[in-house]
Structures are given as structure tokens and as C-alpha cells.
Amino acid sequence: MNNPPVIGVLALQGDVREHLIALAAADAVARPVRRPEELADIDALVIPGGESTTISKLAVLFGVLEPLRERVRAGMPVYGTCAGMIMLADKILDGREDQESLGGVDMIVRRNAFGRQNESFEARIEFAGIEGGPVEGVFIRAPWVESVGAAAEVLATYDGHVVAVRQDNVLATSFHPELTGDHRVHAYFVDMVRASA
Questions:
Q1: Taking the mean position of all CA atoms in its chain, how far away is CA 131?
Q2: Is a pLDDT exceeding 80 seen at residue 112?
Q3: pLDDT more than 90, % of the chain
Q4: Is 38 marked active-site?
Q5: 82 is known as an active-site residue
Q6: Catalytic pick from 18, 19, 100, 178?
Q7: pTM of the shown model
Q8: Catalytic residue among 18, 19, 100, 176
Q9: What is the mean pLDDT of the segment spanning 40-65?
Q10: Distances in Å between the alpha carbon of 170 and those of 40, 174, 175?
Q11: Start-to-end Cα distance in the chain
Q12: CB atoms within 10 A of CB 132
């Protein structure tokens, strides 16, 4: 892929603008995606942080949940941060009865595992495959990964908990790198997208 990849950001709720900025800084063409027809025009997708139950409800309401599931199953690269990680988990702990996920990563994720909003924090995270030292991560009502299956690769841990996972073309982090000005995780994802083309 010689041209910059076109990466959508699911723009239903959450920190969409920050991801658009981080992706542009990582040499991708970034655009918001809300409708099923917009999925056809992208090479990859980012699912931002926000509130996972709200995002899943809005994805159903806007008619993008099933088309998104199909694209993920078909191998479209996807990156989820925080609520996006929850959306990409095959199994969710402490989720609501009606909560939908896309699946894509053989992992069990616990919602709000690091605590409430007022317990948010920043940390430096050693991230496998990213050079230049630890990445900055912002944890806001963040989940953690309770367990991963054989197909999933752990890329980072914090305080004994898995906080970054990759399975094939799917990447997920508990934390928000888009809020830090350090765009290396987005660059890592853009490289994944280029490699999958």
C-alpha cells in the first residue's frame, strides 16, 4: 500500500477527534464513520474510548453493528481503546445483559477494572513491538484483560494486568494513547493496516 491507508474512527460516542488527530499524525487518512455505507470506504477502523454499553446501543441504532462484525470477521484491521477494547472482546465480565460486542479477540475483559472516573491515572507502559521506550497511557475507568486465548498475543501489562493485546489484524488497549501526544501506538496500528493490504 503506497497511498496512505484510509482509517475510520467509529464516531458514535467517545474521544473521536483525538483519534482522528493521532491517526493523521501517523500518516493515515482519518475520517469519522457513523453509517454502514461509510464502512465500504475504509481500510481499517478505530473504536474509541467512551462508554461501551452506549457505543453498542448506538451501533445497533445506526445499523453498523452487524456490518462491522462482518468486516472484522473478514479480516479488516481494527484498533479499540478502553471501551473499544471491551467491544472487541469475545467475553465481557461485569457487562450489562443487553451489551453487544463485536468480538475479534479471544480474551475475557473486565469492565471498569481499574476503578471509577476519579481513580483515573497516567502510566508509562512497556509495549512490545514499539521502539523508543515506554508509551504514555491514560487510564480512565479502564478495563483490563482477565485472560487471553492461545490466538491472542499480550503486548503490554501494567501492575500485573494485561492492558494491550493483538490477535491477527485486531489491536486493543485498556488505555488511551490518543490523549497523550505520543502517537507511536497509532503508528503501530497504521503499520498493521499497511501490512494487511
A1: 20
A2: no
A3: 73
A4: no
A5: yes
A6: 178
A7: 0.94
A8: 176
A9: 91
A10: 18, 14, 16
A11: 6
A12: 8
